[in-house]
DNA sequence: GCCCGAAGTGAGATGCTCTTACATATGTAA
DNA sequence: TTACATATGTAAGAGCATCTCACTTCGGGC
């Protein structure tokens, strides 16, 4: 850290005294720590260490520890919504397959990033005043809602659509959590998520059994 | 802490130098802190302060911070299972009402103790080697499993019973989490948990729609 | 009555959060 | 080019938490 200022860059894109991309790299470091050591297994200091900066640097980009977490969650919700939309777009509008694909994207996200997934839904305590996160949550729900509406041929604000969309969400959400928690004695040989979600979608959006 | 040894007892059952019931009181203090300030809003030091002992005292009863959390979770799971069993016992064996009552107990627990509830299902990271917790989880699932089996008139290890019990659990679990997270745009005017769970139980344990 | 183990104390090593004062880089304008 | 404003970094440190260690105090069994 004396003669050659370009040498010390720790395998990152650090140009010199200024980092250039610290904010994004901190988020990525925290995301990785959360996946590796659980939702609380990260520290601002460790993230800074990984980015190759002093432990005070992160506070130039984030107010405090919770704000970094919120940024990680926000970025995670963006990816979750994008995945759900990709699932929906891969099938004809209004098809049961589209609804099931949204659910599958949800479950796959939970399995791929259990730490972030848990964080997304466990960050409520102390983060009530985060309107952007709440809005992103609504956006995710909106994907389900409009797919269900298209499937039933009803407007998204129809009470019956809302009821069934909530049931779908609730089902998929529970299955996702149980899958990553492994607290369930899963039916013999595990579960075929695709077939499972297709069956659930059919049952909930089909004839009025509820 | 000098002249009158009996004076300093901080509204607890402290007899003198020895506390008498520190372990239980620490668990209770942590439980309260978790409910008030979220799953991570507690510290061993604060719990010790509340119990009126030095910050080193807790380590005579628990190896480390995670072990206290595990004790809180363990105690919480005991109460959850007890509540589920009470729900089941309040209705005829094999009735749909019994199954719905188990689900209602589950949701009610989540609403009453969201912090502990979240902890119970979020403690997997780093606590894999806690066979007692896993076993208590199995016990809870067992309540659902045998109620479903009785309802269907089949043995609890029947694959169909397992599939439907898992569906029930998944549904109730998702609903519980969504309720305490309020991440859902709940159907107008909220949800009548009792009716909702009864409908779900009927749909899942009824004729083979899945 | 004595001794031993269980349960508590105070001090301290280490690490994390976040603040403050200061240093360095970058862009814009004179 | 120089000069300044702003953004982004550093070093040092206050304050709190976890956990350890050596020591003290209590209660029960012999």
TrEMBL record, chains A, B:
Residue ranges the UniProt entry marks as DNA-binding: 43-62
Name of protein: TetR/AcrR family transcriptional regulator
PROSITE patterns reported for this sequence: HTH_TETR_2
Domain of life: Bacteria
Sorted UniProt keywords: DNA-binding, Transcription, Transcription regulation
Organism: Histidinibacterium lentulum
Molecular function, one GO term: DNA-binding transcription factor activity
Ranges where the HTH tetR-type domain occurs: 20-80
Stored Pfam families: TetR_C_33, TetR_N
């Amino acid at each position: 850290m004396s003669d050659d200022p370009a040498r010390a860059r720790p395998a990152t894109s650090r140009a010199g005294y200024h980092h250039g991309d610290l904010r994004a790299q901190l988020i990525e470091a925290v995301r990785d720590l959360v996946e590796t050591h659980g939702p609380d297994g990260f520290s601002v200091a460790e993230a800074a260490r990984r980015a190759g900066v002093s432990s005070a640097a992160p506070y130039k980009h984030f107010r405090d520890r919770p704000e970094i977490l919120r940024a990680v969650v926000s970025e995670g919700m963006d990816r979750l919504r994008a995945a759900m939309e990709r699932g929906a777009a891969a099938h004809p509008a209004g098809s049961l397959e589209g609804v099931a694909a949204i659910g599958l994207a949800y479950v796959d996200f939970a399995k791929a990033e259990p730490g972030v997934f848990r964080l997304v839904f466990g960050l409520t305590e102390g983060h009530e005043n985060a309107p952007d996160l709440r809005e992103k949550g609504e956006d995710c729900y909106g994907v389900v809602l409009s797919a269900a509406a298209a499937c039933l041929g009803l407007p998204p604000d129809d009470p019956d659509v809302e009821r069934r969309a909530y049931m779908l969400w609730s089902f998929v959400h529970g299955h996702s959590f149980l899958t990553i928690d492994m607290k369930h004695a899963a039916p013999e040989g595990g579960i075929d998520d695709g077939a499972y979600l297709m069956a659930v979608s059919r049952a909930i959006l089909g004839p009025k059994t509820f």
